[in-house]
Amino acid sequence: MDWNEEVQEEFADVIRQFGLKYANKAIEDFNTLCQNPPAKIDRSYLQKLKTVDYSKLKPFINQGIEQFDTAYDALEENKLENLNYYRKKYFEAKIADYKKQAEELSKQSISPDRKKSLESEFEKLRDEFMDFLELQMSSAKEVAEMLASLRTFNFSAQQRNNPKRR
Fold first, then answer.
1. 72 and 61 in contact (C-beta within 8 Å)?
2. Residue among 95, 86, 105, 75 nearest 142 (CA)
3. CB 83 within 8 A of CB 50
4. Is residue 118 a contact partner of residue 145, using CB atoms and an 8 Å limit?
5. CA–CA distance, 135 with 19 (Å, rounded to integer)
6. Please, what sign has the CA dihedral across residues 150, 156, 160, 163?
7. How many CB atoms lie within 10 A of CB 8?
8. What is the DSSP string of 96-124?
9. How confident is the model over 39-82, as pLDDT tens digits?
10. Taking the model in full, what pTM does it have?
11. What is the pLDDT of residues 97-131, one digit of tens each?
């Protein structure tokens, strides 16, 4: 078969249609994932959003198909926006969980190890979501202060006051 301009145009048209079909399917699948989140956003859902794979679309990028490139850029932007939105929801929920836990534990004394563990877990969470500065400076800071002010019991003082424990 001779490869001439007419065949080249047909080939380009088939590639364009094929690429757009793949792009539309990827957009539809991603929208379905984003529109049906679990009742409680968890790490596994965030991981699903983060690892959505567009490898089938890569051969069509920058091939002169303007509609495809526009759709792909919109898909990438949508992925980033949704990932940030659900990451923020997850972080807000975790802050609320720690706040509730700190409020409950503030009514009693806890072991120093338990307090240290809670503070460490919360600090790791804050480090992971450092990009949400407004939450870091308000809610997260408040919870960190609540955790830091939790009372602990002193084992050595209890043993001195209770000679039967020795």
1. yes
2. 95
3. yes
4. no
5. 40
6. positive
7. 10
8. HHHHHHHHHHTTS-B-HHHHHHHHHHHHH
9. 999 999 999 999 988 888 888 888 888 888 999 999 999 999 99
10. 0.80
11. 999 999 999 999 999 999 999 999 999 999 999 99
User: What are the residues whose beta carbons fall under 8 Å from the beta carbon of 98, sequence distance 6 or more?
Assistant: 118, 122, 125, 143, 147
Tokens of 73: 């850029």
Residue type, 87: R
Amino acid at position 166, single letter: R
As a whole number of angstroms, the distance between CA 139 and CA 123 comes to 13
> Residue written as tokens 């940030």?
84
Cα gap 152→155, rounded to integer Å: 9
First to last CA, the chain: 96
Instruction: Read off the tokens for 135.
Output: 């939450």
- What tokens were used for 49? 């959003």
